[in-house]
Amino acid sequence: MNWAENRFLVRSPKTERHEGHQERIVPLFPELRTELERHFSLDKTKENEFVSEHFQKTSWNLHNPFQTIAKRAGLGKIIRPFDNLRMSRSNEVADRWGEVIESLWIGHSIKVMRKHYKIVSDEMFASAAGVNLDNQVSHAQSHAISTDLDGLGQPLTDSFIG
Q1: How many CB atoms neighbour CB 126 within 10 A?
Q2: Distance (Å, whole) CA 28 – CA 26
Q3: How many Cβ atoms sit within 10 Å of the Cβ of residue 102?
Q4: Do 83 and 21 share a structural domain?
Q5: In degrees rounded to 5, what are phi and psi of residue 27?
Q6: Which residues are bridge partners to 120 per DSSP?
Q7: Range of the domain at 32
């Protein structure tokens, strides 16, 4: 974690066998920085590089602990939570900084991003229709359309989280 330059290192065991894809430097986005600062200010082990001592192994399945946290927070079951989170940030980065930066920061090729992550959001529909979403009530379900071509374009949640 490089707090001074607002960057952090992401190690990628999945792609480490490919030259130059073992790790990448990504921005410490403001909303993430806020949460990490809050976490480390509460944590007794402030010098530790890990957010959680308990979940350090990349082979561990975090789906069940995540679902427990979501349930306790009153969110209900979240379908494909990590895909959902990754897709959201992928689209935010691509829309703001473009596909090349998205590929570098999120850690997959532009082809993979286009096939699995790119969505058409409610905001895009509203913008095209000249509608301001800030003045409207959120829909019960997202109208995002995934360009996912391999059958994984199932709903990402069973309840709207917006």
Answers
A1: 15
A2: 7
A3: 23
A4: no
A5: -70, 150
A6: 145
A7: 1-48
DSSP, collapsed to helix, strand or coil, labels residue 1 as: coil
Which contiguous run of DSSP H or E holds residue 96?
A: helix 81-97
Q: Are 25 and 9 within 8 A, CB to CB?
A: yes
pTM above 0.70, yes or no: no
- pLDDT tens column, 70-115: 999 999 888 888 888 889 999 999 999 999 999 989 988 899 999 9
Structure tokens belonging to residue 15: 């792609």
Q: Is residue 56 part of a domain?
A: no
Q: What is the DSSP letter of 44?
A: S
DSSP-derived pairing of the beta strands 23-27 and 145-146: unpaired
d(CA 18, CA 147): 26
Number of H helices and E strands in the chain, helices first, is 6, 4
Give pLDDT < 70 ranges for the chain. Answer: 43-59, 135-162
Query: Please, what is the end-to-end C-alpha distance for the chain in angstroms?
Result: 29
Give the Cα separation of 52 and 32 in Å (integer). Answer: 15
Q: What's the domain count of the chain? A: 2
